Amino acid sequence: MFEIRGAVAVVTGASSGLGRRFALDMAARGATVIGIARRQELLSTLAGEMQKASPGSATVTCDVSDTERLVSVLADIEREHQRVDVLVNNAGTGPPRGERLELPAYRAVMDTNYFAPVAGTLAVLPGMLARRRGVIVNVSSDSARAPTPHEAAYSASKAALSLFTECLAFDTERTGVHLHVLYPGWVPTSMGSAAVDEGMRMPPKMVRRTEEQVSQLVLARMGGPKIDIDAAAAARMAPVARALLPGAYRKGVRKASG
């Protein structure tokens, strides 16, 4: 698997939740980590914690939906550190559950959840290919393959990200560059907890995971031969159930969604 010690790693959405956990765990294992997010106060706290284990780690304030700014930040990191070995596209957003949306709201979700990771991936990929070494982890969602009511914008953006990653992985096979799609299950981050607060039923225990569990799984699996990193494998059966028993499947999803 990929040796994280000594690597230069970039994590988006690093100020809280899974992104913060990824950044701290990579720094603890000896990587130089650059955390990117919008909230400067939280990033300052993160930087101090990372630097206890990895003095060269730092943070950059950036709204990833501004893809020109994101690409510029990544170019600056490559110039300063001579490379980016790992990119974790974790930043994500979703409108309030069940809210009636107009087209601009859909575009806003796609800008953060799809176009930002696409821009980041395309920005660092040439350097990785030239060095024949690198890992890109795009954080998707089980909603991409087991969509539920009230989440059309979010689910569509994550499905697009999953397919982008899987398709691009064909082009990087046997190059030393590994692309992965992370399906983290349900994690009690601010976004996950907000969905429950807004009416979604608490997911079953079989798909619940902690930030620590997901982060350790990513560190163990990245650089391996499989594209998908499944924290909760149960959702992999959703497309099969949907194809074989469509009526029963939809009824079950409605009931489980509240």
Describe the structure.
- This protein has a 7-stranded parallel β-sheet with strand order 3-2-1-4-5-6-7, sandwiched between helices.
- The radius of gyration is 18 Å and the shape is globular.
- It has one domain: 3-Layer(aba) Sandwich (Rossmann fold), CATH 3.40.50.720.
- It has helices at 17-28, 40-53, 67-81, 103-131, 152-172, 190-197, 211-221, 238-244, 246-257; strands at 8-12, 32-37, 58-61, 86-89, 134-139, 177-183, 228-230.
- The chain is built from 9 helices and 7 strands.
- 50% of the residues lie in helices and 14% in strands.
- The model has no long low-confidence stretch (mean pLDDT 90).
- Helix 1 packs parallel to helix 2 (40-53).
- It is an alpha/beta fold and 258 residues long.
Secondary structure layout plus pairing:
Blueprint: E1 8-12, H1 17-28, E2 32-37, H2 40-53, E3 58-61, H3 67-81, E4 86-89, H4 103-131, E5 134-139, H5 152-172, E6 177-183, H6 190-197, H7 211-221, E7 228-230, H8 238-244, H9 246-257
Parallel strand pairs: 1-2, 1-4, 2-3, 4-5, 5-6, 6-7
Helix pairs in contact: 1-2, 1-7, 3-4, 4-5, 8-9
Explain briefly what this protein structure is.
The chain has 258 residues and is of the alpha/beta class. It contains nine helices and seven strands. The chain has a seven-stranded parallel β-sheet with strand order 3-2-1-4-5-6-7, sandwiched between helices.
Keyphrases for this structure?
seven-stranded parallel beta sheet; 7 strands; alpha/beta
Element order, helices and strands?
EHEHEHEHEHEHHEHH
Distance from N terminus to C terminus (CA atoms, Å) equals 41 Å
CATH class label: Alpha Beta
Strand order of the largest sheet: 3-2-1-4-5-6-7
CATH superfamily: NAD(P)-binding Rossmann-like Domain
**Helix/sheet category:** alpha/beta
Which stretches are poorly predicted, pLDDT < 50 over at least 5 residues? Answer: none
CATH architecture title: 3-Layer(aba) Sandwich
- Name the overall outline: globular
Approximately how much helix is present in the residues? Answer: 40-55%
Annotation field: number of helices: 9
| Average pLDDT figure | 90
How does the major sheet shape up?
7 strands, parallel
Radius of gyration: 18 Å
Number of domains: 1
Strand content: 5-15%
How many DSSP E strands?
A: 7
Question: Could you say what the CATH topology is called?
Answer: Rossmann fold
